[in-house]
Amino acid sequence: MNEPDLVIVGGGNAALCAAITAVEAGARVLILEGAPKDYRGGNSRHTRNFRCMHDGPLSVLTGSYGEDEYYDDLLRVTKGNTDEKLARMAIRGSQDSQPWMEAHGVRFQPSLSGTLSLSRTNAFFLGGGKALVNAYYRTAESLGVQVLYDAPVTHLELVHDKITRVDYTYQGKDLSLSPRAVVVASGGFQGNIERLVAAWGPEAENFLIRGTPYNRGDVLFDLLDQGVQSIGDPTQCHAVAIDGRAPKFDGGIVTRLDCVPFSVVVNKHAKRFYNEGEDVWPKRYAIWGRLVAAQDDQVAYSIIDSKSKDLFMPSVFPPITADSIGALAVKLNLDVNALEKTITDFNAACQPGDFHPTELDGVTTDALTPPKTNWARPIQDGPFYAYELRPGVTFTYLGFKVDETAQVQGPNGAIRNLWAAGETMAGSILGQGYLAGFGMSIGTVFGRIAGKEAADYVR
Question: What cofactor is needed (predicted)?
């Protein structure tokens, strides 16, 4: 192995964008990916789209999606908890990143049925996130990027304002390198249940992790312990409601449940607890993981009837089905009388209106707490269907504080040869909430920035 100028910690979208950018600028690059080759790519392997600003039709994107509208969408989900300068950099950078992605092997497809509301804002990867990861690895390796799998980094030695050593394990040996620069793009700490419990409390034991178990946050906490400045709340994360039958780790996108807007959602006591129709799903789906996490036993149930069963992308698991609400309650181990009353009260509160499943339609309830402010149609046409919901954590928001060049800020200012990209710094922009496809935008834009800045430094 040639001695690298630049070591990139991590092997997902942000790491690959940094690696490709840096090697094209003349740097010798080594990727240290903690996962085995079959699990390479972190959360990127489970993604499916990229949120993209564009002034007019672009590739598979329709219409236009301007900077201010994009930023307003972000403000709604984060409730203003964002660094505006970095957020606008990610937004503006997404526009020229889309053709850059195509030039480096990524292919896109038009929005599918069930995702048509995103055709203007989000470009979907042909073959999903795994195809994107594989395309980037092919491109990176053809350009001379070296990759080691099953090579977790255990320590970055910070001396004053510089990283002087990278410690990692590979093939059973403890090894070290002293590259001229380092980019950390190794994700959050959601794969570390002990860390989640420390942040959230014992309820985190019931969380499901949508990605691999290799995103443990070891490098993140190693550097934070050395005084690197942090950003973000350890209890904030991208957490969605997923099928309760999903595996503990790595269930991915196919376990997500998109039925909530067309349903009634109840907790284990058969009581509703939030407005299911608050906003269109791409802007609100990521709040439901946290909402379910706050319920007893971290479980809820989404209930629909036959007229809504084809309005959303289905889970990989079939729904629980019954011919009556009472029979459904029995199958869900819910109190029959309580669930029948909840559904009866909801149905009585539904007001007439024109139902439009892909946009806010104002079809609402009256005198019901909590209300349902859109898509409120009675649950009355059997057979009836239910899905068990559990919190599915995608990535955590605790990360490094960076500047506009993606340079990591240490105890006494910028660390001269350290940059971060992707989930390790996304907490600067995503203080809370989530916007569909925006994690890929942050990773792509700041991965390219970090790769360029690191390459400039080593040159």
Answer: FAD
User: What CATH code is carried by the domain that includes residue 337?
Assistant: 3.90.700.10
CATH number, residue 196: 3.50.50.60
Q: What is the largest CA-CA distance in the chain?
A: 71
Task: Note whether 420 and 443 are within 8 A (CB).
Answer: no
Q: What is the DSSP letter of 350?
A: B
100 and 138 part of one domain: yes
Q: What is the pTM of this model?
A: 0.89
Closest CA to 346 of 317, 312, 375: 375
What 3-state DSSP class applies to 368? Answer: coil
Among the listed residues 242, 244, 290, 281, the one whose alpha carbon sits nearest the alpha carbon of residue 437: 281
CA 459 – CA 455 distance, rounded (Å): 6
Instruction: Give first-to-last CA distance, the chain, whole Å.
Output: 20
The torsion region of residue 71 among left (phi > 0), alpha (psi -120 to 50) and beta comes to: alpha
Provide the number of structural domains found in the chain.
Answer: 2
Q: Are 97 and 444 in contact (CB under 8 A)?
A: yes
What confidence tens digit (pLDDT) does each residue in 204-217 have?
A: 999 999 998 999 99
Q: In which residue are the tokens 């079809």 written? A: 363
User: What is the torsion angle, in degrees rounded to the nearest 10, for the CA atoms of residue 231, residue 67, residue 439 and residue 148?
Assistant: -90
What is the extent of the structural domain holding 27?
A: 6-233+397-458
Q: How many CB atoms lie within 10 A of CB 325?
A: 25
pLDDT digits (tens, 9 = 90+) for 316-353: 899 999 999 999 999 999 999 999 999 999 999 999 99
CA–CA gap between residue 439 and residue 126 (Å, rounded)? 18
Q: Where are the beta strands (DSSP E) in 187-287?
A: 208-209, 230-231, 237-243, 264-267
Residues 125/108, Cβ–Cβ less than 8 Å: yes
- Residues 51, 53, 55, 56: what is their CA dihedral angle, to the nearest 10 degrees? -10
From 341, 366, 392, the end of a domain falls on: 392
Closest by CA to 295, choosing from 265, 256, 275, 325, is 265
Residue 151 backbone phi and psi in degrees, to 5: -130, 65
Cβ proximity of 402 and 425 under 8 Å: yes
Contacts of residue 54, Cβ cutoff 8 Å, sequence gap at least 6? 61, 64, 65, 95, 98
Could you tell me if 238 and 199 are in contact, meaning their C-beta atoms sit under 8 angstroms apart?
A: no
